[in-house]
Write a structure and sequence with these properties.
Blueprint (H helix, E strand, L loop, with lengths): L1 H18 L1 E9 L2 E8 L2 E4 L16 H4 L9 H63 L3 E11 L4 H25 L1 E11 L7 E11 H17 L1 H24 L1
Parallel strand pairs: 4-5
Antiparallel strand pairs: 1-2, 1-6, 2-3, 4-6
């Protein structure tokens, strides 16, 4: 009888843990991302930082506090030093500009190839697990979705075009989210300013899902990865080979 009670208590504990909700508070305000993850009554992320201990200041002796002797340079020596510093700055700036332009081209091509391969990998995984994932997506709840965008541009025409693009993307994105998840929108405010010259993008949302849902999504992703591991590795090797070709071209150039 005692063994049954212990087993029942363990099963009940695991049931409560898996049914308990994980709450994610996501905020992007003023260009700063703030993420909090809570489970039950505990804050899982970010963890509280420990206060640094104050160290006692070491007493210094009179000899250490004594002023150090300074050596003054002559006018000719100072002029020679300043000319050498200016020459070094000019040469370093010229070398930095040429290096930056080459690095920018290299990074742009590498980033483009990486994005292309990652999209293909995501498509491959999604085709395998989309039926499994869509069942779990309906258990995820997005509440208090707040979007506050202010669109601007260098001139009125550019600002109006950007406003149309952003508005289309936002409302289509919200419609897509409602197809996949349970979404509750608080406010959506997209404005257009012609005089500020600076756009701002603020948004926040609360995401709630059960621990069992999170575990199910992780297992589904793991299953999709193992099933398509060979194809995913081939795409990764294609990315590495393209990066090596780019490096060889830069070396020969």
């Amino acid at each position: 009888m005692t063994a049954l009670i212990i087993i029942a208590a363990i099963v009940l504990m695991f049931f409560i843990l898996f049914k308990a909700k994980i709450r994610l508070e996501l905020k992007f305000l003023g260009g700063v991302l703030d993420l909090k993850v809570k489970y039950l009554c505990f804050t899982v992320f970010p963890l509280k930082k420990k206060k640094p201990k104050h160290r006692k200041k070491r007493k210094t002796s009179p000899e250490e506090n004594a002023p150090t002797e300074t050596i003054e340079l002559s006018a000719d020596a100072k002029e020679a030093v300043s000319e050498a510093e200016e020459f070094a700055e000019q040469t370093s700036d010229e070398a930095a500009e040429s290096a930056v332009s080459e690095k920018d081209k290299k990074k742009l091509s590498e980033t483009f190839n990486m994005i292309k391969v990652r999209i293909e990998q995501f498509k491959l995984l999604w085709e395998t697990v989309k039926k499994f994932f869509t069942k779990f997506f309906k258990r995820i709840k997005i509440t208090n979705l707040m979007i506050d965008f202010v669109i601007s541009g260098e001139d009125a025409c550019e600002a109006a075009v950007n406003y149309g693009k952003v508005s289309t993307a936002v409302y289509n994105g919200i419609a897509l989210l409602k197809l996949l998840f349970r979404v509750s929108v608080k406010t959506v405010d997209i404005g257009c300013e012609f005089e500020s010259g600076r756009s701002s993008y603020d948004c926040s949302a609360n995401i709630t899902l059960g621990l069992g849902t999170a575990v199910g999504l992780l297992l589904g992703a793991l299953f999709g990865y193992l099933r398509n591991k060979q194809r995913l590795d081939e795409l990764g090797e294609a990315l590495n080979s393209s990066d090596s070709d780019i490096k060889e071209e830069n070396l020969t150039a």
